[in-house]
Design goal:
This protein is mainly beta. The protein has one domain: Porin (Beta Barrel). It is built from one helix and 15 strands. The strands form two sheets. It has a twelve-stranded antiparallel barrel with strand order 1-2-3-4-5-7-8-11-12-13-14-15.
Length: 223
């Protein structure tokens, strides 16, 4: 009887910890694939990675960026690497520190008065992310460099949210998320987006409208 109770406790604990990985982390469990997307008028990003260990994943990604005044556009294709640098397993919560980075080719266009300027360069994109989560609250902060010769489009984001109620691991749970982000050299203002998130054990979807009236849709799926 004691062995059965212990097994049930360990199973629940494993599902509890796995639920954090599915929500907060930029990679899945060992031997899994993760696909993610983030789409609005000025920023469209999609990537997929494969976890070769519980802490390391390699992948590919594509990003489209556009300035607020629509005079600058950027398209980036890159090979990516994700690493779990540190994990804190706390009572009823978890915190993580991640490294995310890539190397790829960026193509750009600057529409100037009377002429246009095109370029094609190598870009490096190292960055870090910290996240903290329980089954009811969530916080994440990230900073990533987007650097090429004479280009600096560094990206910073902070997001926080809460769930409306607790659910079982295999049930869909609604969350309210608020994110603020900015990309250097493309926007002079901070984009703020309230979103509704629906999350299950292997996926989430988010949708909202930012402070410029632009719709936004995000998704994540682990398989």
């Amino acid at each position: 009887m004691q062995l059965s109770s212990c097994f049930k406790f360990l199973l629940k604990l494993g599902l509890f910890v796995s639920s954090f990985n599915a929500v907060a982390g930029p990679m899945g469990f060992k031997d899994s694939y993760m696909a993610m997307g983030d789409f609005n008028s000025n920023w469209r990003e999609a990537f997929v990675n494969y976890a070769v260990t519980p802490r390391d994943a390699f992948g590919v990604g594509a990003t489209y960026m556009r300035s607020d005044d629509e005079t600058k556009t950027r398209t980036l294709e890159e090979f990516t690497y994700t690493s779990l640098l540190k994990r804190w397993n706390l009572p009823n919560s978890q915190a993580n520190l991640w490294f995310t980075g890539g190397i790829g080719a960026i193509q750009g266009e600057n529409d100037l008065v009377g002429k246009s300027h095109h370029f094609d360069k190598v870009m490096l994109t190292p960055g870090v992310q910290f996240d903290y989560e329980t089954t009811r609250v969530y916080f994440a902060a990230a900073h990533r460099l987007y650097r090429a010769e004479h280009i600096n489009h560094d990206f910073t984001s902070v997001r926080a949210g809460f769930s409306f109620y607790e659910t079982d691991y295999d049930k869909t749970q609604p969350w309210a998320i608020l994110e603020a982000r900015n990309m250097n050299g493309l926007s002079d203002k901070i984009e703020v987006t309230p979103m509704l998130r629906l999350i299950n054990k292997s996926y989430f979807v988010e949708a909202g409208v930012n402070n410029s009236g632009q719709p936004r849709f995000n998704f994540m799926y682990i398989f």
